Amino acid sequence: MVSEYSDRMPALPVECGYDSVTVELYKQDHGGQSPPANFYDTGWKLWRAGKLNDFYRRVRDSVKTLDENLFVASSPSVYPWAYDQYLQDSKTWVNTGIVDQFLPQLYRYSIADYIYELNSSLSYINPEKKDITFAGVLMNVGSYTIEPQFLLQSLQANRNAGVKGEGHFFYEGLRRNNFRLADTLRSTYYTQPVDMPGREFNRRPKGLLVSEDSTNVVKTGSWENLPVPGFRGGIIRTGSSTPSSLEYSYDIPADGFYNLYAYLIPSFSFAPEVKYTIKTKQGDTVVSVNQQSPGKQGWFHLGSYEMMKGKRTVFTLNNNGIPAGKYVMSDAGLLLIDRKKSPNVVVSSRENVVATTLPTKFEVSNNFPNPFNPETMVTFKLSEAGQVNIIIYNQLGELIEHRTLGELAVGEHQFRWNAERLPSGPYFIKVESGVNSVVLKTLLLK
Length: 446
Prior knowledge:
The two termini are 43 Å apart. The protein contains 7 helices and 26 strands. The protein has 3 domains: 2-187, Glycosidases (TIM Barrel), CATH 3.20.20.80; 208-352, Jelly Rolls, CATH 2.60.120.260; 362-444, Sandwich (Immunoglobulin-like), CATH 2.60.40. It has a 5-stranded antiparallel sheet with strand order 9-12-17-14-15, with no helix packed on it. 28% of the residues are buried. Strand 14 (274-280) and strand 15 (283-289) form a beta hairpin. The chain is an alpha+beta fold. Helix 5 runs parallel beside helix 6.
């Protein structure tokens, strides 16, 4: 995890510092003398920048006290311009170890200007600090999106200078022009996954996901599929008439503490008290969950528990004691390493990571506009040709519309939905291709 400070943190416009508190502090350090009227005075700038440096050291100490494994990173404007205009002494931040990662904002619109700023930024830091320096590349802002050729030239300039990575500002540019920049990076400089610089192992491995229809879920009793959009596809439920239960098993890669989550779709048709039994190293722990509560939409944290390595049942739930006429619902369960309680546990390598998402042959953007009246547009991109279905439900899980778009080619496509005949309220748009699906929640407001 990274605690990141951008181009104005910490910073103070060079014209500032004449407030009564700052003036008094300056007098205490200078035998009662008032600060110079010229805010560009060398000593005056140095003193104010030093105060910001002291503040930043205290910030670092606070972050490290919270978790010594956190990184403190800065992405300031380029030095010395930022020092002259905003008193940002990034040279000191890097060279004295205030920051763990340094990403100067090399925002330029030509490769010649970019290379100049890259070399200039590197000239102010100690050579041994190059390993914590990563180039800030302007990918997208407003109507501007970097051209792929310029992007590739910038990355090559970084490698030529010994800079091993970059930060792209802003990530929205990856999706522009039919994902052109994302595809460019993936096919050139970013073909292989890597660990975060400075980490001896992957501290944020992907979670262990078990879907309700997985072979890792043992069902007893009577469970039925419900076409209400869940995490992936629908959900399952059981009523109160027949004793029914579920057991979710995981192949836990290492001893340690793990955060456990259950995906919930609240409804008043579900039970107000469903008991989840978590199988921990110390024994069983029971957590009661109100499946009616609207505030529990999505991933619900069941707690952090110590687990032992190996394939084992992690949690169970059943319909014992639920009121007549109510249901127990279930969907996917997710297990994530708890780094606060298990900071040094090696969960998996890049070659042996368990994905939190199912393999997909398409990407779906959020529909726009949202909320809408009466039309909204869903944009999706196929990486392989295939048949696409659009299925729309209301908040009760009732089918509103099923549209087969037929066999579509590779590339970006759009689906326009007109809900003029429908009442206001939330709706779910499911985009389905083969075994993969993505569900969007949208709101019709009339």
